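In response to a reviewer's request, we include the raw inputs and outputs for one of the modeled complexes. The two entities were modeled together in a single run.
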Amino acid sequence: MAVRIVFLGPLRDLAGEDSREVPAPLDWTGLLSAVGPQVAEQLNEQRVNVACAGKVLSDKTTLHAQDGDEVALLPPVSGG
Amino acid sequence: MNDVRLLTSPFIPGALIGPFTDAHPGLGGVCTFVGEVRGEADVELLELSHYEPLTLPSMEELAQQAITRFDLMGILMVHRVGAMRPGEPIVCVSAAAKHRRGAIDAVDFAMDHLKSAAWFWKREKRNGEWHWIQPRADDYADLARWSD
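The model returned the following structure tokens for the whole complex.
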């Protein structure tokens, strides 16, 4: 089992893929190094949110993803 | 009745309104808004992507907020995802209430939240190339109208 990182919206283009599997557990520092410098730079922006296991984190730096969790990287929404 | 849906294929808003209205006998007013993909000169396609685990649950929560805040009898909230052509319906919100003001305000409230706070990402294809649509300051200003 692993943690699945999902790249949404424009972050998908930056990452060059829809999702990526990385070994569990995964914390904030691990996430930043797993996604590559370009996506990491975006993640450091306040307006980019992170969800873990279907919940948006109020403080993304507290990320602690376990085996089987999905971590979604959520850039600012462009509306419906 | 709270009817919230994400659709991956084209829909006819008019076909949803009759059954929605019929489901609320005794209502005083129904207000419906339909948003369509704007026909702009060089836009070939609009693509809306979402994130399944968050998008639908957050729309259901928004529907519930609207019901409580505006004392609705019911709300219909239908949103397209996927690729759409100009002129295709993208969103339909309909609210049923005892009195008109609640129905009208609920639709306005729901649309402002869908436009700026719902988990959708949009890109459009112009001259064969995809361009991501960035959030607009106006959308945030629209949302701020509803903060207590």
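As requested, we also summarize the result in words. Chain A has a mean pLDDT of 95. Residues 32 and 44 of chain A are 9 Å apart (CA to CA).
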